Automatic annotation (TrEMBL):
The keyword Kinase applies. PANTHER family: 4-DIPHOSPHOCYTIDYL-2-C-METHYL-D-ERYTHRITOL KINASE, CHLOROPLASTIC. Pfam families: GHMP_kinases_C, GHMP_kinases_N. It catalyses: 4-CDP-2-C-methyl-D-erythritol + ATP = 4-CDP-2-C-methyl-D-erythritol 2-phosphate + ADP + H(+). Catalyzes the phosphorylation of the position 2 hydroxy group of 4-diphosphocytidyl-2C-methyl-D-erythritol. GO terms for biological process: isopentenyl diphosphate biosynthetic process, methylerythritol 4-phosphate pathway; terpenoid biosynthetic process. Its EC number is 2.7.1.148. GO terms for molecular function: 4-(cytidine 5'-diphospho)-2-C-methyl-D-erythritol kinase activity; ATP binding. The active site is at K11, D157. This is 4-diphosphocytidyl-2-C-methyl-D-erythritol kinase. Residues 82-165 form the GHMP kinase N-terminal domain. Belongs to the GHMP kinase family. IspE subfamily.
Length: 325
């Protein structure tokens, strides 16, 4: 029996430009993602019992178990859990390989630190980590490109969680090119992620975008080299670049998010933006100390459920350990 542990990052959108929907209902996107130091850990283990079992444990920032989210995750239909869906795709490939005899049974444990339904790609990070872990477990030898293609079929944010760093997504936001790898010397971006009391459905926010944008969205342009340089530079330059076309529709669905945004600006954030389709609001700080200060100042705001300081860019999905058990 073997056990492999992998991790993958949640994300914040530095930019998110949305075009008019195509006939399949999806929207063309030009999005710049930054992987964050909030990571999901997925541990996969071959098991004698056939089938795929999953257990999810969610944590708060202080490392204690988030009982409410853990209970809610226990009720999620495994068929819709992205880690399970990812594992099943690779399980089918493994059934034809040298590990065929051990491919029938798999147990998955997800240690969750990225908030659920927050616009931070927590579910997609589960899928990304599960893909990398199962690729190693069954020695499938799938390339980064092949994992990207499988990731894309599971969800539009999975490729960004695989890639990490600062990456541009085009198409449905799922065709990635890395703009900046993670390097020790590069500028860090410090954030406070301001969680709402209740999640927001991504399809609902896109539908509201369509309603607001009935006249048709403008043509999408990729960022210019100057814009890319600013997105990858320090916070003083980044703060002028943050933009999210889903912010207006998300605010229509959740007017109280305006209070969170205003409170973050009043508290001295360099810039404030919605993360993905929300409802998490991301406040950009000058440095780690400023982020800590913003988090304590904003945790008492009534519309904020939790304020989590974090930073980016972080590395993409990667193996943490492999063990024979
Ligand atoms: O791909 P994923 O399952 O993460 O997308 C969730 C939903 O978000 C889709 O069902 C669709 O309604 C919306 N979406 C979209 N255009 C995109 C990405 C997502 O309309 N490029």
């Amino acid at each position: 029996m073997r056990e492999v542990r992998a991790s993958a990052p949640g994300k914040v959108n530095l930019t998110l430009r949305v075009g008019a929907p195509t006939p399949d209902g999806y929207h063309p996107l030009v999005a710049v993602f930054e992987a964050l130091n909030l990571r999901e850990t997925v541990t996969v283990r071959t098991s004698k019992a056939p089938g795929v079992r999953v257990e999810t444990i969610a944590y708060l920032s202080d490392g204690s178990v988030d009982e409410a989210t853990t209970r809610a995750m226990a009720d999620v239909d495994p068929a819709t859990h992205l880690a399970v869906r990812a594992a099943r795709v690779l399980q089918r490939l493994a059934a034809a390989g040298p590990w065929a005899s051990t491919a029938a049974g798999l147990s998955i444990r997800v240690d969750k630190r990225v908030p659920v339904a927050g616009g931070m790609a927590g579910g997609s990070a589960d899928a990304a980590a599960a893909l990398v872990a199962c690729n190693e477990l069954w020695e499938l030898g799938l390339s980064g490109e092949q994992l990207q293609a499988i990731g894309r079929s599971l969800g539009a944010d999975v490729p960004a969680c695989l890639a990490g760093g600062i990456a541009l997504g085009t198409g449905r936001g799922d065709h990635m090119s890395v703009l900046r790898e993670v390097d020790e010397a590069g500028a860090q971006h410090h954030w406070v992620m301001l969680l709402a009391h209740e999640g927001l459905s991504t399809p609902d926010v896109f539908r509201e975008f369509d309603r607001l944008d009935a006249a048709g969205a403008p043509a999408l342009a990729e960022p210019t080299p100057e814009e890319v340089a600013a997105l990858c530079a320090g916070p003083e330059e980044l703060c002028h670049c943050l933009v999210n076309d889903l912010q207006a529709p998300a605010l229509r669905l959740r007017p109280e998010l305006a209070e969170t945004i205003r409170a973050a600006a009043d508290a001295g954030a360099l810039a404030v933006t919605l993360s993905g389709s929300g409802p998490t609001v991301a406040a950009l700080a000058r440095d780690a100390e400023h982020a800590q200060g913003l988090a304590s100042a904003l945790s008492d705001v009534p519309t904020v459920a939790r304020a989590i300081p974090t930073c980016g860019p972080a590395c993409g999905a990667r193996i943490e350990s492999t063990e024979a058990i």
